[in-house]
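Module 6 notes. Inverse folding takes a fixed backbone as the condition and produces residue identities as the prediction. Think of it as a translation problem where the source language is geometry and the target language is the twenty amino acids. Below is one complete input and output pair. Work through it position by position during the lab.
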């Protein structure tokens, strides 16, 4: 190992190199250099950012295809910065962002309160693990309990991890509640068009067959019923075999379908009668997106367990499972855990997000802008022959088409507007940052309107 080099601290070589023992090759700005036990790194960063900024989209896309496992069919767009509801690619083109990182960036990009919370906490304490207590984790849990039906919180790192925890908690609850039973209820109910995650347990609860089939066999014991079919759901729950029912009050990935109050109330009543748990997945529809802090508040029907994730830490990875005391009493030390979950950094970010979104004035603005935007979309798009329905609540909106939505999504991107697909690929999913202005919504509606003719071209092919 090279143990000493006489390099002046003021020299350009000193500024550009950090010497670290290693036996690896180091890839730097397109050139691979063999180094004998020396790892060449850029001082202050592991990447030469100025060099990378000079790279064009095509080069970066080519590198991605070479070095990253191909699990994403990405849009050919390399984003490098963002502010508010605007994003910019490496060539400097501007885009109006109505995706918010798939309903994650609820406060937009670079919110100053969020930036302050993250930077100040990073300067103090980032991670200690759950072997010890930390103040931001407890404070975020207190806020979540105070603002919800729940009595206790379990933190994890994502929506799919929240689903996995809810599965385990439900099965443990049934064993705890039926100590004399040789086979306590262990099965689960889920519904058509649902999406609960991609890990093996969460995947088993996700209805789309093409997500599950490559990885069979997944967790057994899951029955899928028609979303909204009250009779079938009640009959299944009354069988006494179901540990928990998983349902999204508003389905995001599935196509922006909303449950009815009658459906959720029937599930609640049947679960209470049978001892089954009711689990709401609010990973996408929760935390202010509907104009209510929690989507189920608009129905007045409350769960035993609720899963959260996407917007809770404003872009940092977090998940949470909110439970009643009845459920929490079944959980013991060692039943579940996570190394990174609820660390001080993400929880301080979560506090900043929750404090801002839970303000009644903020929530009222989401409701108002959501109604305004839906009315705009009906006016501008409703007369088009390909538009079947415009639906949603607050700022989670779906435009259902009678053809594939991808040509419209691609045309919007070329015109400076970013939107998503959902459902069976025939729904334009709109989940902008909750801070979006009416002027930005007007611009988005205008771009969508001007891009509609591509649907005629696509349908005539």
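Target side of the pair, the amino acids:
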């Amino acid at each position: 190992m090279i143990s000493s080099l006489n390099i002046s601290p003021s020299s350009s070589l000193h500024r550009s190199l950090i010497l670290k023992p290693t036996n690896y090759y180091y890839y730097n700005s397109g050139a691979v250099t063999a180094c004998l036990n020396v790892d060449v790194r850029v001082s202050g960063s592991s990447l030469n950012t100025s060099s990378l900024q000079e790279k064009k989209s095509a080069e970066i896309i080519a590198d991605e295809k070479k070095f990253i496992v191909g699990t994403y069919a990405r849009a050919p767009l390399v984003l490098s910065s963002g502010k508010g509801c605007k994003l910019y690619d490496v060539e400097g083109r501007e885009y109006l962002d109505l995706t918010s990182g798939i309903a994650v960036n609820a406060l937009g990009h670079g919110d100053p309160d969020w930036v302050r919370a993250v930077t100040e906490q990073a300067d103090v304490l980032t991670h200690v693990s759950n072997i010890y207590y930390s103040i931001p984790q407890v404070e975020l849990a207190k806020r979540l309990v105070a603002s919800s039906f729940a009595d206790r919180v379990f933190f994890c790192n994502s929506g799919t991890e929240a689903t996995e925890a809810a599965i385990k908690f439900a099965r443990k609850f049934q064993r705890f509640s039926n100590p004399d039973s040789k086979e306590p209820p262990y099965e689960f109910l889920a519904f058509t068009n649902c999406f609960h995650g991609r890990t093996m347990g969460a995947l088993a609860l996700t209805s789309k067959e093409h997500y599950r089939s490559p990885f069979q066999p997944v967790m057994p014991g899951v029955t899928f019923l028609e979303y909204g079919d009250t009779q079938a759901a009640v009959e299944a729950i009354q069988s006494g075999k179901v540990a928990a029912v998983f349902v999204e009050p508003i389905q995001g990935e599935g196509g922006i379908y909303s449950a009815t109050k009658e459906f959720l109330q029937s599930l609640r009543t049947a679960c209470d009668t049978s001892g089954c748990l009711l689990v709401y997945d609010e990973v996408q529809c929760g935390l202010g997106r509907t104009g209510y802090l929690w989507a189920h508040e608009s129905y007045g029907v409350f769960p035993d367990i609720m899963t959260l994730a996407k917007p809770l830490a404003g872009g940092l990875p977090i998940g949470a499972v909110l439970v009643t005391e009845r459920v929490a009493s079944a959980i013991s030390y060692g039943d579940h855990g996570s190394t990174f979950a609820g660390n001080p950094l993400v929880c301080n970010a979560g506090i900043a997000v929750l404090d801002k979104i839970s303000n009644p004035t903020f929530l009222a603005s989401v409701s108002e802008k959501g109604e305004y935007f839906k009315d705009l979309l009906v006016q501008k798009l409703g007369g088009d022959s390909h538009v079947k329905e415009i639906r949603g609540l607050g700022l989670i909106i779906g435009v259902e088409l009678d053809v594939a939505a991808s040509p419209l999504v691609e045309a919007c991107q070329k015109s400076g507007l970013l939107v998503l697909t959902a459902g069976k690929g025939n729904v334009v999913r709109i989940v902008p940052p909750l801070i979006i202005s009416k002027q930005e919504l007007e611009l988005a509606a205008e771009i969508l309107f001007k891009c509609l003719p591509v649907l005629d071209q696509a349908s005539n092919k």
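Reference fact for the lab report: The first strand starts at residue 18 and ends at 20.
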